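Exercise 3.2. Students should predict the tertiary structure of the chain below and write it as structure tokens, then compare their answer with the key that follows.

Predict this chain's 3D structure.
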Amino acid sequence: MTTSVRGDQLARLLGRWHSLPGRHRSPDYAALGAAVRGLLADGRLALGVRLPAERELAESLGVSRTTVSAAYRALRESGHLTSRRGAGSWTTLPHGHRVATSGLWTPDDDLDMIDLGCAASAAPVELVPAARAAAEELPRYLGSAGYHPTGLPELRAKVAEIYTNRGVLTSAEQILVTSGTQQALDLVLRLTVPVGAPVLVETPTYPNALAALSARRARISTHGLDTATGWDAELLLGALRQTRPRLAYMITEFQNPTGHLMPAELRERMVATAHASGSELVVDESFVDLPLDDPDMPPPVAVFDRHSRVLSIGGMSKPYWGGLRIGWVRASAPLVQRLAAIRVGVDMASPVLEQLVAVQLLQQAPSIVAARRAQLRFRRDALVTALREQLPEWRFFIPGGGVTLWAELDGPISSALSRAAEDVGVRLAPGPRFGLDGTLERFLRLPFTLPADDLVEAVRRIASVRHDLDRAARPAWRTPAVIA
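Answer key:
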């Protein structure tokens, strides 16, 4: 059954879609078509979705049917829309394009594209030797079926040791190895969040977490983070008390995308409040290994857990390599067994060879992670310098760790700017991708995982299109509807 979107729903997603002023101002039909392509590019509009009829969308947008007809025609010509008489029009990808790991569509031959849509680093040099060493260990497992739903014993023990060294006494039985952090979250949601259950998340937050929650059809409520200061303790704790969510998903270490680090006092109060509210806490620790300035980190949230309410998830993607699909859940031993039972119905187990590679890398963690931190610190500083020189009107908090910078723009132009940046070879993930429909148009996530020269060049290109947007008077924007 094909999913469809109503005219009012698509209008909310489109937000401020009108053509921006400038020397090369596009007609409204072209701006509308570009806006729809932008929704496809950042994952807010899925493939295979039937779009509303031309008349319905025209009424919802307050434009002529001719404008919508021309926009649909342009989308068909570019390969982003397929139409059949009597069946309607549905979203597609143009020939020769693919969906990248960031969720963005990308041409196969975009060699000059600087991709700032994906916040992940290239593999460390130690990966190939680690893979060779892992291959030498592999014969020990070839006599078995190779299915280990909870993970290889040595990898579980190594991850448990990491938690214990951070101050949370952990046994191997409390670790479930998964195929990446995203699967760790998905399994937790499958176990703890029934359809329609209330869930609390930060805003902005990790877009793939929102996608996982939407797949569970959860009722999402949000706690807004301040760009400069992060969490407001009383507002966060008040949201837990008032909404009494079944689960709260928090990124406490160098929050994605803002880069904030939750203080120890708030961690303790959050755990106590979640227990009193009957809420589970899922703490995403993807960036915990990446402090760039002060190496002293607050204690893990699980330190304050006395009632098995905290489930910690993490993985190898950010400090090591995203192509190594190794993640984990730390929880009580009985809960790990329940998660493993669910996991068998999903993918049975993580690949043995990849788990052995992970063991090899974790044994070299001090040197690998230290090199990664130095690399990211240099790139972050290069990005900050370029932004201050090229776009001094933008405001941002300089994160003390992680891999992303959350910039507040000088206008609600994030989606439009992202579309314009594509034309000059820079791929961006606009602010609305990190929140619910129609929000965060004044913000843009900028990862600093690429080489410094690429980051500086990307900022130069972004500045060139940004400065071209203000060549004429700004039109009146309509206010988008916000769904909380």
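Discussion points: The first strand starts at residue 50 and ends at 51. The two ends are 28 Å apart (CA to CA).
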